[in-house]
TrEMBL record:
Mg(2+) binds at residues 25, 118. It catalyses: 3-deoxy-alpha-D-manno-2-octulosonate-8-phosphate + H2O = 3-deoxy-alpha-D-manno-oct-2-ulosonate + phosphate. It comes from the Bacteria. Keywords: Hydrolase, Lipopolysaccharide biosynthesis, Magnesium, Metal-binding. Homotetramer. Pfam families: Hydrolase_3. Transmembrane segments: none annotated. Its EC number is 3.1.3.45. This is 3-deoxy-D-manno-octulosonate 8-phosphate phosphatase KdsC.
Length: 176
């Protein structure tokens, strides 16, 4: 397995040092991308507990956290609420447009935004933000478009690992 901070170059470190907002996709990042439906039509997803745990640490270090996802799912809305995301938007087809609307109200520039995504719908936002990342199991064309590829897969702590990289770059990576 690659080192936890493998690929954290001086350039990425410098970009991460100025991040004020971390935004994530959900399916394929916070989950492994699988969706389970039971016979009653109930939807189930599996989230990694460590991805959730880091949200409060980011917020304690004045980094806002949000989600913009293409699917509209009650399970995801509930998870974002439980984790106290600063915002979360669901069923969004144009994520870059939605991000620009959000940034207007937050008075944060694109250079101060980090985004982690894993698929085609994420490309327009991945190519605009100050720091972009994807899980290691994202398609090759996504990996080629981002600043950083996490050594972890979606749903296996990739969001946490990317957040830890940002906290480390800002001198806030600590256990407490």
């Amino acid at each position: 397995m690659r080192d936890y901070f493998d690929g954290l170059t001086a350039e990425i470190h410098a970009k991460a040092a100025g991040i004020k907002l971390l935004v994530t996709d959900v399916d394929g990042v916070l989950t492994d991308g699988g969706i389970i439906y039971d016979n009653a039509g109930m939807e189930y997803k599996r989230f990694h507990v460590r991805d959730g745990l880091i949200v409060s640490h980011l917020r304690k270090n004045d980094i806002l956290v949000g989600a913009i996802t293409g699917r509209n799912s009650k399970v995801v809305r509930d998870r974002c609420d439980v984790l106290h995301f600063d915002f979360h938007y669901h069923g969004v087809r144009d994520k870059a447009k939605k991000l620009m609307e959000i940034l207007e109200t937050l008075e944060i520039s694109l250079e101060e935004v980090a985004f982690i995504g894993d698929d085609i719908i994420d490309l327009p936002i991945l190519t605009r933000v100050g720091l972009s990342a994807c899980p290691q199991d994202a398609p090759p064309y996504i990996q080629e478009a981002v600043d950083y590829v996490s050594p972890l897969a979606g749903g296996q702590g990739a969001f946490r690992q990317f957040a830890d990289c940002i906290l480390k770059a800002q001198g806030s990576y600590r256990i407490s």
